[in-house]
């Protein structure tokens, strides 16, 4: 006789996690031929040759063993130099923790400061993993939505942001440049947020992975421009975007030196360390691929111009050129169900986009697409969308 198996429970916060809408639409699109996929947050450009060769050379040397949990010294030193030059102030290696992706950097930061029952206030719309990472910790994500103005710019209401905080708030999460809107938090706004956080004794988690993909300056405003070394600021960065290394899963966290050992311990308990050969590729990228960063920004800008030119001529579409990042985030008159619209675009236009609902309920009715793509392909995709929506 077969024994009765009683189901073992999983945590409530995990049981209620929703699948990402981007995954849903890409799975739906897999059944159709000739789809132009613009739903994911990555370019069609491969990683440059220099980091790829560095990884191969590292493997050929036999660099396949455990490494220091916080990252190899050579890479941490190079990141410290990179951040120091970029932000015009000394950032020392004891502030740098290498992680297996920017997503891991965010998880390490949250594991450091959050307990069940705490809350994190997020500026939204935002990449869905951020909200989910807070939920996984058993903390409450509190969303404060950007407003879309008549001038086509997104705006943050600082009073609304601060009013969302209470005695259980452990952090403010600011993704700037923002995915999906391209909004950038200004230096004045960042200083106000930093002053508020200092006064309340709460952390700022600054997701700055798109800070080099900016169209009117070399880099976006950063909390690293204004914070002191021991300010309660976690700056999350990644090799994924600026160096076209999405599949490598390599990032870093810039944090106060007083938590350096703690962060290393959390990495050790999470995944031990990032692979030596992957770090070798990251070192080559950050030291030798600055020309690629400039070229990639130009590539994205060309894509932005194509998208805004073609879609901007469709009366039903509300679109403005983003200030930064490589996404167009737009609304279509009369369309309120973004998932249904995304599926129609797959079926009728053969173009894959991300539905706005993926970025939270406050983004319903909007659509995101990634324009870091080959210009000819992008024009074809935009012509298809425009023809369907006219």
Plain-language structure description:
The structure is a single chain. With 390 residues, the protein is an alpha/beta fold. It folds into two domains: 135 residues, Aspartate Aminotransferase, domain 1 (Alpha-Beta Complex); 235 residues, Type I PLP-dependent aspartate aminotransferase-like (Major domain) (Aspartate Aminotransferase, domain 2, 3-Layer(aba) Sandwich), CATH 3.40.640. The protein has 13 helices and 15 strands. A seven-stranded mixed beta sheet has the order 2-10-9-8-7-3-4, with helices on both faces. Strands 11-12-15-14 form a four-stranded antiparallel beta sheet. Strands 1-13 form a two-stranded parallel sheet. Helix 3 runs antiparallel to helix 10 and helix 5 packs across helix 9. The longest helix is centred in the C-terminal third of the chain and has 22 residues. The termini are far apart. The model has no long low-confidence stretch (mean pLDDT 96).
Distance between the termini: 65 Å
Annotated CATH architecture of the largest domain? 3-Layer(aba) Sandwich
Overall helicity = 25-40%
Give the CATH class of the largest domain.
Alpha Beta
Stretches where pLDDT is under 50 for at least 5 consecutive residues are none
Supply the number of helical segments.
13
- Placed side by side, the strands forming the largest sheet appear as 2-10-9-8-7-3-4
| CATH fold field value of the largest domain | Aspartate Aminotransferase, domain 2
Regarding quaternary structure, how should these chains be classified? single chain
* Structural class computed from helices and strand pairing: alpha/beta
Biggest sheet descriptor: 7 strands, mixed
Summarize the helix and strand pattern as letters: HHEHHEHEHEEEHEHEEEHHHEEHEEEH
Total domains: 2
CATH superfamily of the largest domain: Type I PLP-dependent aspartate aminotransferase-like (Major domain)
Number of strands: 15
